[in-house]
Amino acid sequence: MRIIKYLFLLLLLSLVALSIFIATQKGVFTVERSKIINSQKSSLFNYANDLKNWKEWNSLAVEDPLLNITYSNNTIGKGSFCSWDGKEAAGELKTTNVKQDDSILQTMDINGNIADISMSFKDTLGKTKVTWKAKGKMSFTFKILSVFNGGANKLFGSIFEKSLANLDKKLDYEINTYNVKVNGVVKKLEAFYLAQTFTSEFSNVSKNTSIVFSKITTFCNNNNITIKGKPFVIFHTYDTTNKLTKISICIPIKDPIFITEGSEISSDTLPSFEAVKTTLTGDYSHTQKALDKTLEYLKTNNIKTDPSFSRLELYSIGKNEINSPSKWKTEIYFPTKPKPVYRPAAVSSIPTEEVVPADVEKEIPSEF
């Protein structure tokens, strides 16, 4: 009996000693991991900057398929956030600041362990070096977990390493798989739409379209306005020297409406027009390849563009429908000048050989 008491006392003293040891461990931790990702910096940044993609590559989500994730209305850039509840962890991730194509700053809370997170992106010969760093404080429970798992650096480091490997594998296929097809001359029918028009840097177009599409969609829902068709962007001017473009970010609607002057959102009508259509299947980073192929087609076929606007991009399958960039579908329309109509000259009463016009317009398929 005395031996049992001694053993119990020894166990109790061991637990007290262990608790004191754990409690006196540093609560502050810093973890950093880097990896070369086989994708261009801008594509990688845009993918990581959208929290909707988080579940596709972060090991916390990849290894827990039953993880329940809730997102903010806007999932891109500063102010976006998501929260989750899973079998092993619950937490929240919030983006506090971004520097386009350079860095993303976030705060994360996992089971009461709060950390400042940063991801930086550097070009490396066509690929991208991602450096992921976390600095924060551990709860007492997490101190216990870290002691038995090699410390916070090893525990968090393992999550970072697996997540970066997932990111590389996911993006290698999703970003680099694409197809460009020039469909030829088509006719776009008249459409009514709501829009917000402003000048944007090239690098901010993707972020701005997501924000404005969400804003106009909410406006339509709140005012019982029927949306008809897919969202599109009209590029009025396209300044490659200064990398600036004047755009109208548009949502098509069923019926024309009147909006009070002074509102950020305007109502307008897109008249019917003829255009050369090109379809890009894949990530938006390949848009320039689609533009180049379209311009080559225009030149080869001696087709003149209409200067009323630069082009129109319609997102028939986008990130709101599917989370895989390789399956996104963008229709690009370059407005063209109507071909001249050839009319035969007045025919004299003297019989002559029949003259056939040298250039007869082909029937143009109609689409919306």
UniProtKB/TrEMBL annotation:
The transmembrane residues are none
- Tell me which residues make up the GyrI-like small molecule binding domain: 212-336
Query: Which domain of life does this protein belong to?
Result: Bacteria
Q: Which InterPro entries match?
A: GyrI-like, Reg_factor_effector_dom_sf
Q: Which Pfam families match?
A: GyrI-like
Protein name per UniProt: Transcriptional regulator
Q: Which organism is it from?
A: Flavobacterium alvei
